[in-house]
Amino acid sequence: MPPFLLLETVCIFLFSRVPPSLPLQEVHVSRETIGKISVASKMMWCSAAVDILFLLDGSNSVGKGSFERSKHFAITVCDALDISTERVRVGAFQFSSTPHLEFPLDSFSTQQEVKAKIKRMVFKGGRTETGLALKYLLNRGFPGGRNASVPQILVIVTDGKSQGHVALPAKQLKEKGVTVFAVGVRFPRWEELHALASEPREQHVLLAEQVEDATNGLFSTLSNSAICSSTTPDCRVEAHPCERRTLEMVREFAGNAPCWRGSRRTPAVLAAHCPFYSWKRVFLAHPTTCYRTTCPGPCDSQPCQNGGTCVPEGLDGYQCLCPLAFGGEANCAPKLSLECRVDLLFLLDSSAGTTLDGFLRAKAFVKQFVQAVLSEDSRARVGVATYSRELLVAVPVGEYQDVPDLVRSLDGIPFRGGPTLMGSALRQAADRGFGSATRTGQDRPRRVVVLLTESRSEDEVAGPARYARARELLLLGVGSEAVQAELEEIMGSPKHVMVYSDPQDLLNQIPELQGKLCSRQRPGCRTQALDLVFMLDTSASVGPENFAQMQSFVRSCALQFEVNPDVTQVGLVVYGSQVQTAFGLDTKPTQAALLRAISQAPYLGGVGSAGTALLHIYDKVMTVQRGARPGVPKAVVVLTGGRGTEDAAVPAQKLRNNGISVLVMGVGPVLSEGLRRLAGPRDSLIHVAAYTDLRYHQDMLIEWLCGEAKRPVNLCKPSPCVNEGSCVLQNGSYRCECRDGWEGPHCENRFLRGDAPEARGSHAGGQQPYPSQQLQRRPGH
């Protein structure tokens, strides 16, 4: 061990990572202007007589990756040059330990050739001898150039970390009339770039890493100096504040650490506290000014309406990023409108169950809706009410005709908290939500209540909902999935409910709401052929009063169809203590006769069996012998309270298998399992809360029937062939193959063995008329 130990200082070097996302140059302009700078760089074009020489740093300090980026910058500049022997000539040097001529200025006469040669340049590596390369040019000039007869431009792409002096040779080149651009790469040393560049230095120092910005800056300077006009007349060069950064090593005092000191005069080692330093890489900012060209863009005219954001695409294209309510239309123009005359009351849940966030979402929904839908010529009048313990009409219907005023009024509506008394609010909305107007009939606009909630009611809602609907209010609901079932009960139909799973999706319901406000169910399928049978539960569980409600509902539905033997035929079956055909499909050929017959249908009482009634329809109603028409869509509508349906699923499926659609309208607060099975795999089920609510589901039933009337049919289902004849599809029609002893188009005629053979055999449907004299009729018809 040596006699002494001398440790003057303990130094520990710590190098922090460089933040990868921090740009080395930043132009302080808006994102829109950054986009314009990028677009303008692609519009620039220089077609003057000029010699441009690229001097690319190929030293080890730059590295192969940054050398490739230098090449990319040079190629991008060439895209804007009219390269030819008479116009722009381009040459290239690579320098490191020594300068290397890649190709002289007179080597290539086309842009494609120059770009291809630059692309093939190979990184050499070595020391950074920038000064040596500049002296080479001072002594020999621009190789292949036109001397001083045309402007000479030198574009030096380097990291500015030369291992020799550069200021003097750079100054001498500039004194000879050469315009020098210093373009930084990797982590450039800006001081050296400034020493290399021509005056004014702010316009001649660039950064190759930001290739579009650097290209724009280079041609902006050339345009200002009249060397070449590189842009269209509408474009202009503007000064922008910008900031350049350099990466530096900084030593920081981090505290004291134990250390040991020795002496030549004594072998003793003394303990002491020595300073402790850390080193880290930091970016130092250098404010400056950047000159860039911008051209009029497609977004300058602000084409995006209603708060949309314009995003330029290419030279003259753009895209509008629209608010949700205006998405999908060009320029975010209002794609929605209320063409109908409607008084609209938004009913917002302001209770503690919805919370403040939910209340604010509901207010935002109303704001977006009125902005998207209302216009100067709109015939809609809007009001807003809130509820918790009681109803508060915050904005009376029709008070504001100006949309901005209406939107501002919404901002002042407070959140109230308290219990969620939705039922009470519905009743109050029906009584006083639309003011004291007494207009009736056609003079009164459609009145609609739109309920927005995310919490279940704490009071009973079914009665108040019926109360509101009885006063001819259309109820529409918008809410979260948690309240879907309750909203469907209140609105009386799932079609009147709009549900969102994520609060962010609430605004997506605006177009759907607009569609529901003015939609009116078209009056049936008046020109569509249909064989329709209503099957009514008249058992004791229903009762005479509810049966009368069903009769009224069926009469109202019948008015939506054109009843005659060529279009719509309607039959009616009732069941209770027995099953009875009130009237068959072909017995009421006019609408007047049909309406009278519906009113005369009997109430049977007793215990009913829906399964037996469906089999009755299968065997004795939906048959060719009883008036069903081959090739015509067929449907059965079952109205029942749910009792006696346990045996109905199999007969219903038997009808469906025979080409007959079956829809179940289940009445009552709860749907039984038997009703759900009866509805079948297509879930053909309409849930009605009470018999008095049937009329509110008429639109849904008519829509379903119209859809069934358009479904493709099988001419052999149900079979038009009687007496066990077989139906065979043939060339878009059908024929009946009859058993021995039967003949005719539908195997309806019996023959004796001595009859002529040509009178027997198979017959094609549609080729011979159905012989009406052979049809079996029931007594009294």
Spatial strand sequence of the major β-sheet: 4-3-2-5-6-7
Mean pLDDT: 83
Query: Helicity level, as a percent range?
Result: 25-40%
> Proportion of β residues?
25-35%
The low-pLDDT segments are 1-21, 437-442, 756-781
Write down the oligomeric state: single chain
Shape, per Cα inertia axes: elongated
N/C terminus separation: 132 Å
Number of strands: 28
Fourth-level CATH superfamily of the largest domain:
von Willebrand factor, type A domain
- The CATH architecture name of the largest domain reads 3-Layer(aba) Sandwich
CATH class of the largest domain: Alpha Beta
The major sheet is characterized as: 6 strands, mixed
Category from helices, strands and their pairing = alpha/beta
Number of self-contained structural domains: 5
How many individual helices?
Answer: 20
Explain this structure.
By secondary structure, the chain is α/β, with parallel strands linked by helices. It folds into 5 domains: 30-233, von Willebrand factor, type A domain (Rossmann fold, 3-Layer(aba) Sandwich); 297-331, Laminin (Ribbon); 336-435 and 445-518, von Willebrand factor, type A domain (Rossmann fold); 530-709, von Willebrand factor, type A domain (Rossmann fold), CATH 3.40.50.410; 719-750, Laminin, CATH 2.10.25. 27% of the residues lie in helices and 26% in strands. It has 20 helices and 28 strands. The strands form 7 sheets. The chain has a 6-stranded mixed sheet with strand order 4-3-2-5-6-7, with helices on both faces. Strands 14-13-12-15-16-17 form a 6-stranded mixed sheet, sandwiched between helices. Strand 10 (309-313) and strand 11 (317-321) form a beta hairpin. Helix 11 (422-432) packs parallel to helix 12. The radius of gyration is 44 Å and the shape is elongated. Mean pLDDT is 83; it is low at 1-21, 437-442 and 756-781. Disulfide bonds join 738-747. Residues 769-781 have a biased composition (Polar residues). Residues 1-23 form the signal peptide.
